[in-house]
Write a structure and sequence with these properties.
Layout lengths: L22 H6 L1 H62 L1
Amino acid sequence: MATPRTKKEPKKIEAGIKMPVSFEQFKKSPIAAIAFLSVIGITYLYIDQKNMSKSSMGNCEEEKRGLMKTIEKKDSVIISLITQNAIINATK
């Protein structure tokens, strides 16, 4: 004899964060719920992109400082070569 199956209710997940859109609201208006969740997702991506651009700007500033030092060294070498060439030409 088979035992009658009882419908098991899914376990409710108790969390400290309450979702802004409940499942009941989602069932009533799925398009609005998906649009709301899309806005949340796009906002997260925007904030993440802003944070990444700030960190990459810092890296670019460091690289720029290093390149400026290299340019200054090369400029000083060029100036010394021009000076030497002028002295050589003046003694001829």
